[in-house]
Specification:
Helices cover 28% and strands 31% of the residues. The protein contains three helices and ten strands. The strands form three sheets. Strands 1, 4, 6, 7 and 8 form a five-stranded mixed β-sheet that branches. With 156 residues, it is an alpha+beta fold. The chain has one domain: Nucleoside Triphosphate Pyrophosphohydrolase (Alpha-Beta Complex). The chain is globular, with a radius of gyration of 15 Å.
Length: 156
């Protein structure tokens, strides 16, 4: 049983803060890594941090588990939190997502869906994102746009 399941056994469906990570991973062509989840929604690889796990460790673990892509160096983009990140799941669990967003161009491997959390994984040109991208991910990309433009300036 994982940390979140143990927590939910104690508190039920009450709202909690949950910390997670997501990675804006770009390949050498400047395309962004996306995954299609079982609900047919495209999004960024990432997930919740396990108890005692470092955010960078969680980011690398989640990307590898979900897409088969290995991630090296990570740069912090931003931390997203607050009322706009409230989630109520179909089972009644409520939480406020606190999401640590990382950026990397240090990737290797070929995208491969795990068949559990990811049905498809691929790199897409940022101006040609697939149909069915998560509105939450669109918001996250918008909220992170200023910081991401700074990364482009650092690398040139």
């Amino acid at each position: 049983m994982n940390y979140i399941q143990k927590l939910r056994e104690k508190i039920g469906h009450d709202p909690v803060n949950l910390v997670g990570v997501t990675v804006l991973a770009f390949n050498e062509s400047g395309n962004i890594l996306l995954q299609k989840r079982p609900d047919d929604i495209w999004g960024l690889p990432g997930g919740l941090i396990e108890l005692g796990e470092a955010t960078e460790q969680a980011a690398r673990r989640e990307v590898k588990e979900e897409t088969g892509i290995e991630v090296g160096a990570l740069e912090l983009v931003t931390v997203l939190s607050g009322e706009d990140y409230y989630v109520k799941l179909p089972n009644g669990d409520e939480f406020y997502a606190i999401t640590v967003v990382y950026y990397t161009k240090d990737v290797s491997g070929v995208p491969e869906a795990d068949g559990i959390e990811t049905m498809e994984a691929d790199f897409f040109p940022p101006n040609e994102l697939p149909e069915g991208i998560s509105p939450r991910i669109k918001k996250m990309l918008r909220d992170s746009a200023d910081q991401l433009s700074d990364f482009g300036k650092k690398e040139n």
